Amino acid sequence: MKTYYALVDCNNFYASCERTFQPSLRHVPIVVLSNNDGCVIARSEEAKAVGIGMGAAYFEVKPLVLMYGVRVFSSNFALYGDMSNRVMTTLQEFSPDIEIYSIDESFLKIRTEKDPLEYAREIRNRVWRCTGIPVSVGMAPSKTLAKLASKKGKAQGGAFCIDEVNRTKILEDCPVEKLWGIGKQHAMKLCRWGLNNAHLLSKADNNWVLNHFPVTVLRTVEELRGTPCIPFEMEPANRKSICSSRSFKHDVTDYHDLSEALMTFTARAAEKLRQWNLYSQALSLFIQANPFSGRPYYANSLTIPLPVATSDTTELSDKAAIVLRRLYKKGYNYKKAGVVLMDLVTEKGIQQDFFDDVDREKRQRLMASMDKLNKQMGRDTVRTLGSGINRPWATRRELLSKRYTTCWQELKTVD
DNA sequence: TCTGGGGTCCTAGGACCC
DNA sequence: TCTGGGGTCCTAGGACCC
Q: Is the CB of A215 under 7 A from strand C?
């Protein structure tokens, strides 16, 4: 029995999700936009081919969109999240050892006698058959090599395996900046030392690496040699922070509009907190003016500790309001704002405060009822008044597809 | 004039990831 | 007119302690 790490990566995931429910788009270029329809965050292969860059501003690529008939979508996370679950559930049929790494990627630990390349192809085919999502599968002796193998796999019919025989060649062909864990800064520095491909990096001396780079780079080096160094994490680690932030459709100048937005973000973050059964011990708030407006720029943030860890929307909203009063400066065009809940603990980790006069059990019951109603009847059915009614600051989402898999009213129909 | 040695904890900022 | 959102880990340096 041999053990392999497999990385399964959904190809152009968001674009593929849109395509699954509109098969007529199969060979049509597609892009998916970020929140606020600001920039491109996913592209089908056809869209890449006509020159639309990752992260490009939508208004800048509009000429290309028109010229090539590119179909454009606002991001539909209700759909992508649900499709992701379907893919991950399918993968679990292959191995109980699964690390869900992101919305569109999972590592699997595979023990098999079979030819690993055959096995990888089987994974790819089954995910395609069960979900309609195309994936690339890479098999290798470490996670870093599996990542590399899956990239290679994308160009090779969807599956690839790195072994002793082909490893040197693959590493020689791989520039260091393409490696998982090596970003722009480290890549530049490595190149200055002449280590411009993954093979040369794998031959570097350990002490030399440690003297010049953080230990994360040494881990990458070991992984390139085929020694697993990056832990395989099946249990999702408990969150350390939760953030909710947005850019606004229009610049916000009015204090009350900004406050409404931040109260909404606070409620959203608190909801997530309760979903994970966590409590926050500090609240941080940030506001940013529009850096592109040509007007004076202001950005600031402030963090306050919470005397007793809490996940109560009303309590957190009160604190956020206090922080905002201290941060807000009149006369700026605010473009973005957000709330970060930090120092998260589980119920066991809550330190009681002798002088605490809040009936926390009662508040917890209130939050539980609110969450239940919002889950059954739709988000924001019950909300705090401070989070606003008209929401002039709302996010732009003009090209949204249907929530085909999570909303009865929006199910796919057959004409 | 000259001022040790060893340790921990916290924080901000950098780098990286999807 | 229009430029995303949400995370983690590591390190250096400061504060503080004996």
A: yes
pLDDT digits (tens, 9 = 90+) for A198-221: 999 999 999 999 999 999 999 999
Q: Indicate if CB(A292) is under 7 A from strand C.
A: yes
> DSSP class of residue A404?
T
Model confidence pLDDT, tens digit, residues A13-69? 999 999 999 999 999 999 999 999 999 999 999 999 999 999 999 999 999 999 999
Which bases of chain C are under 7 A from a protein CB atom?
Answer: 1-11
* A247: Cβ contacts below 8 Å, ≥ 6 apart: A35, A36, A38, A335, A336, A395
Q: Which nucleotides of B are covered by protein (CB under 7 A)?
A: 12, 14-18
DSSP H/E element including A270: helix A255-275
Backbone torsion region of residue A396, taken as left when φ is above 0, otherwise alpha when ψ lies between -120 and 50, otherwise beta: beta
- The residue type found at A244 is S
Report chain A's mean pLDDT, rounded to a whole number. Answer: 94
Residues 338-357 of A with CB under 7 A from strand C: 338, 340
Does this model's pTM top 0.85? My answer is yes
A185 class by beta-carbon count within 10 Å (0-12 exposed, 13-18 middle, 19+ buried): exposed
Give the closest nucleotide to A333 (alpha carbon vs C1'): C1
d(CA A175, CA A193): 14
Residue that is written with structure tokens 């290309």 in the block: A64
SS3 state of residue A415: coil
Instruction: Give the closest residue to B18 (Cα–C1′).
Output: A102
Distance of alpha carbon A248 from alpha carbon A169, whole angstroms: 48
pLDDT above 80 (res A354):
no
